[in-house]
Amino acid sequence: MRELELLSHIYRSNAALPVGVSIPPGDDMGAVKVGGGAVLVTVDQVADGVHFDLSTDPLEKIGRKAMTRNLSDAAAMAARPVAAVAAACLPKDFGEDRAKTLFDVMHATADRFNCPLIGGDISMWDQRLILTVTVFAEPDGIDPVLRSGAKVGDAVYVTGKLGGSLITLEDPPDYTHHLDFTPRIDIARKLATSIATRPHAMIDLSDGLALDLARICEQSGVCAELDSDKVPISTAADITAKRSGQPAWQHALGDGEDYELCFTAQPGMIPDQIDGVPVTPVGRIVEATTGPRVSVRLADGTFADTAGLGWEHVG
Amino acid sequence: MRELELLSHIYRSNAALPVGVSIPPGDDMGAVKVGGGAVLVTVDQVADGVHFDLSTDPLEKIGRKAMTRNLSDAAAMAARPVAAVAAACLPKDFGEDRAKTLFDVMHATADRFNCPLIGGDISMWDQRLILTVTVFAEPDGIDPVLRSGAKVGDAVYVTGKLGGSLITLEDPPDYTHHLDFTPRIDIARKLATSIATRPHAMIDLSDGLALDLARICEQSGVCAELDSDKVPISTAADITAKRSGQPAWQHALGDGEDYELCFTAQPGMIPDQIDGVPVTPVGRIVEATTGPRVSVRLADGTFADTAGLGWEHVG
After folding, report:
1. Predicted confidence (pLDDT) per residue in A199-225, tens digit
2. Contact yes or no for A290/A298 (Cβ under 8 A)
3. What is the H or E stretch that residue B187 is in?
């Protein structure tokens, strides 16, 4: 059973959306008209054993990630977060002190991004910890950037450096990217506020550049080519590559949980850094073919498919 | 560790709420200003082994409850539901067919109450099923009814009949109230639209009349007296009382999961039924004392405390 098939099932059953739904399911956030404006909304859960490890990860980072994962979805729409609600199902032996620590950090993280926690639901059970956060956001003067706007001839950009997000670094000390990342809200809004730099399509990188860019391509009806030697490689991806024996670019494309932005835009207009964060052109949007949605051009000039785990060469 | 203590901890840390939060945490829904209007929001989770039993309860009813539990919170504010998002953490062996059934019924239930499901997050893990639904709503011309407006001299009302919500009835066949209830959205909005009948304070009954009315009293700075012989007793409460040997009114006050409305209003103005659902005066709001928040007057004229499980007599 694949998550995508399930999601597709939900989306299909939404074919006839009621009046008032301005962005249907399938983007980083849905949107609906309320009062005089539009509200964007996203929900994400983090579960012990899936998205974090309660036995080793600090509570402070777990609570932080529960919030930032959603805030990254708001960034992907270039939306301004407005408020959050959180649901927690705690193991019965969790203890009050740890619960308070967890909620304190969720609350502080929400405040840090001007997205106050305004409600919650707490249950206890004999299973593992799970936190579910819903963030809502508003356009606040900037039309939301969708996944569906990529155009042939666009350049493909990513913020930051990619790969190895799950390993812990010694420098900076105890840094584990998937628990410590900064949602790129400000960068997204700076890009989207000017016609010259406004992304045509954007997504946040949760499942790896290859798969997430394929989602943009799917919804835009185009294909993409990445250049393996242009993808910005994180220190963690380099370390991971040495351990795995695979090329670092494969980790940068496939590891997931980068929570950086991937967007397509008119070439030549995007600055090479914003707020000190590198913004790197990594490829281009091309016409849809019957081949892979996203292929990668290797240093020797051949192309590899990025679909699946096999990194199958196709030309 | 008590849920209430945890929630209090969250609410205290929200003492300095940012501009834009129009209803702070602690009511049935929070609210925040977006665009030109206010958006109300609530989140609730239903977990296997806590809120339903996956081994015996039909999937159709589980998915329904995940939605209706939140819609009942919207009813408690007299708000109009606008949209929902859902997160599911599925056991790894759950299977695609059952997942589709679950999402189909959540989707159909959302549509049935004009509250389209516009997004979601699906994960899989080796633990039990948990569904988390966030509903947002708008006032749509009716100021939200809070918990904090109860006045001395108000009558206390409940919709429907209370108690025994967890048992399955033979008549109607296979009816289990906590899985089959109808959120009282229309009734709440009909009451709140007229000055004469507008509730001063309202809550939906999730933890039992005694505890939920105490929440209204706490937030309104008042106390309440219930009349044991006026509380409407459900068939299920009668059956449960025969099994337990306790008076049926104790089950009506304490069993929980009724998802009926409890509200306070000017006496003498409320019709005895709305849309075929009984609306019953069950007591009155009195001045705050050092005694119990909610006491119950028994048939012999003595009063009992409703706090705790002991049903401790206090006078």
Report:
1. 999 999 999 999 999 999 999 999 999
2. no
3. helix B185-192
* B45 burial via Cβ count (<10 Å: 0-12, 13-18, 19+): buried
Find all residues with CB under 8 Å of B295, minimum gap 6, and list them.
B223, B224, B225, B226, B303, B304, B305, B306, B314, B315
DSSP string, A140-171: TTSPPP-STT--TTPEEEEES-BS-TTSEETT
Contact list, B119 vs chain A (CB under 8 Å):
25, 29-30, 41-43
pLDDT at B195 exceeding the cut of 70:
yes
Mean pLDDT calculated for residue range A141-165: 97
Fold (CATH) for A155-305: Phosphoribosyl-aminoimidazole Synthetase; Chain A, domain 2 (3.90.650)
Q: Say which amino acid occupies A215.
A: R
Whole-angstrom distance, CA of residue A21 vs CA of residue B227? 46
Give the pLDDT of residue A250.
94
Are the beta carbons of B147 and B24 closer than 8 angstroms? no
CB-based contacts of B90, cutoff 8 Å, min separation 6: A1, B99, B122, B123, B124, B125, B129
Domain ranges of chain A: 3-138, 155-305
Contact between A86 and B43 using a beta-carbon 8 Å cutoff: yes
Q: Which residues is B89 bridged to in the sheet?
A: B123, B130
Contact A131, A87 (CB under 8 A): yes
Peptide bond into A173 cis (omega under 30): no
User: How many angstroms separate the first and last alpha carbons of chain B?
Assistant: 30
Cβ contact A54:A129 at 8 Å: yes
B3-138 under CATH 3.90.550.10, yes or no: no
Enumerate residues 6+ apart whose C-beta is below 8 A from A173: none
Q: Does residue B17 belong to the interface with chain A, where contact is any CB pair within 8 Å?
A: yes
pLDDT, residue B5, reads 59
A-chain residues near B42 (CB < 8 A) = 85, 119
Pairs of CB atoms within 8 A across A/B? 234
Cβ separation B3–A123 shorter than 8 A: yes
Numbers of helices and strands, H then E, in chain B: 8, 16
When CB atoms are compared, the residue of A1, A34, A132 closest to B95 is: A1
pTM (2 decimals)? Answer: 0.90
Average pLDDT in the A243-259 region? 94
Indicate if the alpha-carbon torsion angle A205, A210, A212, A217 is positive or negative: positive
**Intrachain domains B3-138 and B155-305 with the same fold:** no
